[in-house]
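As noted in the main text, all predictions were made from sequence alone. Below is one such record, for DUF4136 domain-containing protein.
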Amino acid sequence: MKKLLLLLAAACCIASCAEIRTTYIGKAYPTTGTAPELYFDWKDVPSDYETMGSIKATPFGKTLEEAQALIEQIGREKGADAIVFEGVVSETSAPTYTTTEKIEKNDDGSKTRTATTSQSVFTTNRLLATFIKYKTQTN
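Prediction:
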C-alpha cells in the first residue's frame, strides 16, 4: 500500500512539473481571428511576406505535438498569418555519475565492499519556428 501511495505521489509530482517553455522574440500584430497557415519547408512559403519573429518551445514532460499546438496558439495571438516550422533540435546533457557503496559483513568477520556507478544523460528536444505576416498588395 505504501508503494502505491509513493508511486501515486511521484506521478502527481511529475505531472505538475510538466510544462512547455517558450521563448519568442519579434513583433506582434492584432490577431487575425483565423488559424495561421502551417509550413514545414521554406520553399513552400509564398514569396511576399515579412518575418515577424522566431519562437522556440521546449517541452518538459509533454510531447512535441503539444509544443506545436502551443506555438500555433501563440502565433494566432501574435497575429501571424503563417508559421514555418524549422525542425527539432536535440540537446544532450553532459553525463552525471552516481556511485553507491554497499559494505557487507561476512560470516568470518571480514567485510565486502561493493561499489556501483550509474550514468545519467538527459536529452531535451526543442521545436523551432518562425512567424510570418503576408505583405498586402497596394494598388
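Strands lie at 19-26, 37-39, 49-60, 82-92, 96-105, 111-120, 123-134. The radius of gyration is 25 Å. These features were considered when defining construct boundaries for the mutagenesis experiments described in Section 2.9.
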